[in-house]
Amino acid sequence: MMKRTSRVLAAGAAAALLFGLTACGGGGGFGETGNGGGDNADTSSPAAGDGSITVLIGSSGDAETNFVQSAVDEWSQESGNTGSLQLASDLPQQLAQGFAAGSPPDVFYVSTDAFAGWAENGSLWAYGDQLGDFDYHQSLVDTFTYDGTFYCAPKDFSTLALVINTDLWEKAGLTDADLPTDWDSLKATAEKLTADGVVGLSFGPEWQRVGTFMAQAGGGLMNDAGQAIVDDPANVTALTYVKELLASGFAAYPADIGAGWGGEAIGAGKAAMVIEGNWVIGALANDFPDVNYKIAALPEGPGGPGTLQFTNCWGIAADSPNQEAALDFVKFMSSDEQQMANARALGVMPAVTTVKDQWSSEFPAQAPFIDGADNAQGFPALAGVQAVITEFNNQLVGLKDADLNQMLGTLQGDLEAIVP
After folding, report:
1. Where is 125: in which H helix or E strand?
2. Helix (H, G, I), strand (E, B), or coil: what is residue 83?
């Protein structure tokens, strides 16, 4: 569940959604690290089978495909088992078909928005209590815990931070001393950066970006007790601030400035600052290699610091005849070595805390992403939450003219309807 006051998903453009949900690494708040298996965890012995597993992924491109293929090959060689990688053209549809037919892949990506539904209907094997001593970030464990049971190992994760075009920053006469630390300074800085057809700040019209302000206000979607808190006054405060930002002209949605998502907005020089995740690093390198930028922490709100997290887990099918080998593969992918190799290949952050310092040392410019993990929120583990968030996002497109109490009241009712 989400933490309400100080706790841990995707761009409106299809490209950003792919990076945020499929390739990268929302869930609950960070407490102490650990695996946190629930009281109802499945303690049955895994099916042994013949040791041959199929691994189904939704790949963002050659880099991800090549990395996972290399990992499958290495695991096969070391374990003596056989792994076969399959690329999905439509991962949710192919998984649904496999579950329905009783012949799903053995191991597969599970997104946060699909997790609870598959856990509820019995499609997933809850193997979380059999993982051993891997120190996953607790928020990631919370994300993949359903009805008290930790189901599946988080693959990796990403958070949101402030991405700044340093050329436009310096042109406006700003230095590191001007980095915004609260909402007032964020608005003031965005105003200074808004000039010559460039807007100071941009973020997507969806909860997966606007939700950062809800977290910073001390709000969110749910509290620690599993109750919907969408109509909490803190969320009204957050959306009121966002409305004022948009009305001021110092902030704008990407589509309103001719961009498909935040990465394009900053890369094309249409926005001086954007709220985006780790995936923006690779996107800027590929599409806008000449753009100079830096990553900064998101400013705090009246409720303190807050951001959002994005992650997937390694699902293992309840119907898999090769659960023993599948579990061994997941443990291999959770090792420090593979977690760092994944981070280097794909620009994500390791799901285990044991290499946090190593990652920060190797990627110092991206430190704000991992530093935000302790204050991040994500998707609640509720079956049907995807439809609720989609409807909320539809309303956020018209936020400038919205009745906030009515909007949040509607979402409150929608969310309450799916809370067990």
Report:
1. none
2. strand
DSSP letter, residue 166: H
Does 291 share its domain with 346? no
The pLDDT, as a whole number, for residue 19 is 34
Residue 379, judged by CB atoms within 10 A of its CB (0-12, 13-18, 19+), counts as: buried
Task: Based on the fold, state whether residues 168 and 232 are members of the same structural domain.
Answer: yes
Does 357 share its domain with 406?
Answer: no
Q: Mark whether 256 and 405 lie in a shared domain.
A: yes
pTM greater than 0.85 (yes/no): no
pLDDT digits (tens, 9 = 90+) for 217-254: 999 999 988 899 999 999 999 999 999 999 999 999 99
- Considering its fold, how many domains does the chain have in total? 2
Instruction: Choose one of 377, 392, 408: the last residue of a domain.
Output: 377
Mean pLDDT value across the chain? 88
Mean pLDDT of 262-279: 95
Please state, in angstroms and as integers, the Cα–Cα distance from residue 354 to each residue in 49, 131, 133, 334, 385, following that order. 32, 15, 11, 11, 31
Per the CB < 8 A criterion, the answer to whether 27 and 139 are in contact is yes
- Catalogue the E-assigned strands of 142-244: 145-146, 149-150, 153-165, 199-202
Find the radius of gyration of the CA atoms of the chain.
Answer: 21
Task: DSSP for 242-278, please give it.
Answer: HHHHHHHTSEE-GGGGT-SSHHHHHHTTSEEEEEEET
Tens digits of residue pLDDT in 288-317: 999 999 999 999 999 999 999 999 999 999
Work out the pLDDT band at 44, boundaries 50, 70, 90: low
Range of the domain at 198: 161-304+383-416
Residue in this structure with the two tokens 């200074």, named with its chain if needed: 192
Instruction: Name the phi and psi angles at 397, rounded to 5.
Output: -60, -35
Write the CATH number for 279.
Answer: 3.40.190.10
